[in-house]
Specification:
The protein is mainly α. It folds into three domains: about 1-140, Tetratricopeptide repeat domain (Serine Threonine Protein Phosphatase 5, Tetratricopeptide repeat, Alpha Horseshoe); about 175-245, no CATH class; about 245-310. Helix content is about 60%, strand content about 0%. Strands 1-2 form a two-stranded antiparallel sheet. Helix 4 runs parallel beside helix 6 (about 160-170), helix 6 runs parallel beside helix 8 and helix 12 packs antiparallel against helix 13. The longest helix is centred in the N-terminal third of the chain and has 20 residues, at about 45-65.
Length: about 300
């Protein structure tokens, strides 16, 4: 199986922050090239969600134009571009921000996330390792949500999100051994059930992919059906599948449409469950269903794409 190459040749060049596009409908330029060689442009969003994201971007762009040297204005403008799938522009804004604030870990944390979105895994790892260095030994901070959950309770922190995305980038490269200690450290540090189940899901899968099945099974003992999960219900359901407390077809119905980030995550977990249980055909069928859903920025989609690329 071939190793996923972290950086891919992009067809479109990033626009500069000063020329970042209009806040309504951006042209369908190529944002990235997939691990399978496909050009990735726009992804579908519900009309109401797109209208909200457009409106939020108008506000963020106005704040950025009023205070273009303010770190928070830079970050929120770039985040709002990213929520609309305008990743090239988002990365350009972060890059200009890093030139102004080379020791700001938030810039590297968020740009690293968007490098994952565009399949530049080596760049993502470099940014997230830099953010790890910049936050080492410092107090952690709650990270405000750009897309709040139903209870409007942020579940992540700056350092937990740096660790999560760094471990994910290693995982997507197929470097499960390098992702494992990051997941383990984040698991120990997790202070709420949402962080525990999201980290536990990837930790379990990493252990299984490394053939450390006994450790994976033991790790599942801390997860229960009655946990206080606010937004990561998909990861919680997958952990119950791994424990044998839910059947696969109750987690992912055979006819389910995989058209959101949440369903992509569930589907990837089910597909990977088939894969490490030596059901290659079933795994590939699920991964291809994820591809058909078109949510190419979702982590479950990116992971499924990486699995299919490794079989080529």
């Amino acid at each position: 199986m071939r190793r996923i190459i972290g950086s891919v040749l992009l067809v479109a060049c990033a626009q500069s922050a000063e020329n970042a596009a209009d806040t309504t409908s951006a042209p369908a330029v190529v944002q990235a090239v997939s691990f399978l060689g496909d050009s990735l442009r726009e992804f579908s969003m519900p009309a109401a969600a797109r209208a909200t994201a457009d409106s939020n971007l108008v506000v963020a762009k106005a704040a950025f134009e009023r205070a273009p040297a303010d770190a928070d204005s830079i970050i929120w403008y770039a985040r709002r571009l990213g929520y609309l799938g305008r990743f090239r522009e988002s990365i350009a804004v972060y890059t200009d921000g890093i030139a102004k604030y080379p020791d700001n870990p938030w810039m590297y944390r968020h740009r690293g996330h968007r490098y994952i979105s565009v399949r530049e895994l080596d760049n993502a790892i470099a940014d997230l390792e830099k953010a790890t260095q910049l936050t080492a030994g410092k107090p952690d901070e709650v990270e405000p949500d750009g897309q709040p959950n139903a209870q409007n309770v942020p579940i992540g922190t700056l350092q937990s999100n740096i660790a999560y995305h760094l471990a994910l980038a290693y995982y997507l490269k197929g470097d499960f051994a390098k992702s494992l200690p990051v997941w383990e450290k984040e698991m120990t540090a997790a202070k709420n059930d949402d962080r525990k189940v999201s980290t536990g899901h990837w930790l379990y899968m990493s252990l299984r992919r490394l053939g450390r099945d006994a450790e994976a099974k033991a790790m599942l003992g801390q997860f229960r059906k009655d946990m206080n999960v606010i937004e990561n219900q998909s990861y919680h359901s997958l952990l119950m599948l791994y424990k044998g407390e839910l059947p696969a077809d109750s987690v992912l119905a055979p006819s389910a449409q995989i058209t959101s980030s949440g369903t992509s995550a569930v589907a990837y977990g089910v597909g990977n469950w088939h894969l490490y249980n030596h059901r290659q055909a079933e795994a590939e069928a699920v991964f291809r269903r994820i591809m058909a859903g078109g949510q190419w920025a979702a982590f479950g989609y990116i992971a499924a794409e990486a699995e299919l690329a490794r079989t080529k």
